[in-house]
Amino acid sequence: MWKKFTIACKYVSVEALKEIGKSLGKRDWNFSADPCNGSHGWISQPNQIPNNVAGFENNLTCDCTFLNATVCHVISIVLKSQSLQGTLPPHLVRLPFLQQIDLTRNYLSGQIPPEWGSTNLVSMFDSRGDWEYHYSREFVSSDYLFVVYFLISLSGSIPQALGNLPQIQRLHLTSNNFSGELPMSLGKLTTLKEFQIGDNNFSGPIPNFIRNWTNLTKLFIQASGLSGPIPSDIGLLTKLSDLRISDLSASSPFPSLRNLKDMTILVLRSCNISGRLPNYLDRMPSLKILDLSFNSLSGRIPTRFDALKGLDNIFLTGNMLNGSVPDWMLKGNGIDLSYNNFTVSVAGESCRSQKMNLFASSSQEDYGVLSCLAGSSCSKSWYSLHINCGGKEETINGTTVFKGDRNAGSSMFFVTGTNWAISNTGTFLDDDGGSRDEYTATNSSTLSMINPELYMTARVSPLSVTYFGFCMGNGNYTVSLHFAEIMFTDDKTFSSLGRRIFDVYLQKKLVLENFNIVDAAGDVGKAVIKKFPVTVVNGTVEIRFYWAGKGTNAIPVSGVYGPLISAISVDPDFEPPFDGEETGKSGIPVGAVIGIAAAAVFVVLLAVGILWWSICLRHERTLEQGIKMEKNMKIQSQSAAETCLSLTSLAVQSYEGVLADGTTIAVKQLSSKSKQGNREFVNEIGMISALQHPHLVKLYGCCIEGNQLLLVYEYMENNSLAHALFGQEESELELDWSTRQKICVGIARGLAYLHEESRLKIVHRDIKATNILLDKDLNPKISDFGLAKLDEEGNTHISTRIAGTLH
């Protein structure tokens, strides 16, 4: 039996351990203590893990059963996540009973010692250092080597002799620079249980000899460089539970996997698979993650897929699937159907669910990429877009506001309240099949660059993340993509060995391929901005970041890979109309509409005025006796300062009135002795009596007494916007931002009605805070139409006459 650190070590090659420690750069082994008794330096307790380093292990294990329990020998050395900066020690050969050496997550360099070929190792882990490419015949012909786990930047081709390891169970060659075809000798490795070759530069097809690996449980061929196709005999590997293949160029039908009953993770992504979805996937009872994204699959979703509703994730992104979306999918979580050709509208509550993704999932021309925003309308055009990815809202240089997207969290689809949305695809997987959904990264160190607040956070994605701007004004723009690598380090530790590689698409065109932030910026924690011209022709901007399987995926911890973006800017290459503010449905800015005075149809105004004037004069005597317009009005005269309504303008006095039925009204008094008063009286009657809208003040009627002209309006309890904003402190209203937004939107809707939606197109010409009234619920209503003019379509006369009131 084995005993760990309980029996004093009677014999151990202390000198060999000293040489091993020296080679590795291991400085904290305590040679004044017995290596086999669990002393400090030879084994670390959980409370001794430095800075809570993920995956840290420090363990030397002895077997003390030799010579009647009088002699101990070292059988295992585990030194994980210690960022050791030495070389692989040839002196392992002096530990004849050593069976395991685990040096994962360190910063070792040099070459693989040929002496290791004569050891009794049955388990060896070496992970990601800066190695020289070297193999020895002795090493690759060992009968005892059960595991080869190299994540170490080796290059060249795989030697034929690697097939001479009859007992090997795991062969991990991920994130190297291997090239050439896989040697036929690997087909003899029938004891293999795990084979991983992702992130390499191999060539040629996936060899058919993998059908010999009938003991295989894990097969990872992601961005390996192999062209494919997937071998038709892959279904013979009936023990497979985790199959991940991606980024193949050769086309193939869906492989026959019906006999793989133990499958838990099935990833066949970007494999150029065509045809229909198979009906047998429901016969994989242990299946948890299904990723068939970015292929050429077509047809309807099979009815039997209903049995997959219990899966953690289903990714069918980027195919040509059509037909209707099953109800169980619309109600599900972790399902991505974006970028497909479904023939029915899926807009609505299900479409906007943050736990599933239906973005651009419809083929209907009316929707296009906006298929999930079909219920949205563009009330205005936007001429810029600024996003602080993964973070909160930031104001840069005191002027430019970068909207934050941290509220999107782990959402698969997220729509902001303005003019942009996020579509996110994928889940972060580790080698053991675990997954996590953390789509933001936060920097914990000090950054020295311009506008560092934009680089303190970032949005990351395990596969693809798309930022989509809509309701953009058409024209030429410059897209600026802000990057800074904040998840790796530059301190010559294991965390500094990470490589993040991804692609960037702009308007569906590849603009950056195999992009490496650190290479482009020169170091980690350094900013780099990539600028691209783009033409907006349909009001949309689409920016997509895609991981094609390249780069490391376990540094500094397992599951760290995929695209990372810090901030996005979209700025016009032209002068936006009215500083990028609202434009009408015709595309003409409101500012321009107001500036272009359609010639006053004076004849119409004069006719209306004469008509009203003649009626009023005809009944002047009756009116002087107290004519009743629409209701029995009892005017309660008060000074404007004492009333709850205070409208101040030239030659105007306002009063509060009470009708016989108790209705409170507002009475505006104009003087007929003033030309302005007469003009405004006629204008108010002629204009507002023809208009009815929730955001226009309602006119009840008018009357004339002697030389006094009276207009009767609905009463507005909260006075004017000017009174609310600039009145005396004791009478000011507390307007929060949501209320202010409601007021602004109401004013905009009222103006939109005047300019475009009413039968009579009218330009107000005197919009200001005193002419915006607020009812009891703080709903805004536009008033005072004394200076308003009709806008006649087709009249191109431009008026330069000053129209607003002066103070």
Indicate the topology.
Elements: H1 14-24, E1 57-65, H2 66-69, E2 71-80, E3 100-103, E4 109-110, E5 123-126, E6 130-131, H3 137-140, E7 147-150, E8 155-156, E9 170-172, E10 177-180, E11 194-196, E12 201-202, E13 218-222, E14 242-246, E15 252-253, E16 265-269, E17 273-276, E18 289-291, E19 296-299, E20 313-315, E21 320-321, H4 327-330, E22 335-336, E23 356-357, E24 385-388, E25 394-396, E26 400-404, E27 413-415, E28 420-425, E29 428-429, E30 435-436, E31 440-442, E32 457-460, E33 464-469, E34 475-483, E35 502-506, E36 509-515, H5 517-521, E37 528-536, E38 541-546, E39 564-565, E40 567-572, H6 590-595, H7 602-618, H8 620-624, E41 633-634, E42 653-659, E43 664-671, H9 675-688, E44 699-705, E45 708-714, H10 721-726, H11 737-757, E46 762-763, E47 772-774, E48 780-782, E49 789-790
Helix pairs in contact: 7-9
Please give the CATH architecture of the domain at 590-790: Orthogonal Bundle
> What quaternary form is this?
single chain
How far the N terminus sits from the C terminus, by CA atoms, comes to: 99 Å
Strand percent estimate? 25-35%
Give the overall silhouette.
elongated
Helix content: 10-25%
CATH topology of the domain at 590-790: Transferase(Phosphotransferase), domain 1
CATH class value of the domain at 590-790: Mainly Alpha
The CATH homologous superfamily of the domain at 590-790 is named Transferase(Phosphotransferase) domain 1
Average pLDDT works out at 78
Number of helices: 11
Overall strand count:
49
Biggest sheet strand line-up: 1-2-3-5-7-9-11-13-14-16-18-20-22-23
Global Rg: 38 Å
How would a crystallographer describe the biggest sheet?
14 strands, mixed
* Structural class assignment: alpha/beta
Subcellular location: Membrane
EC number: 2.7.11.1
Domain Protein kinase: 617-807
Membrane topology: Single-pass type I membrane protein
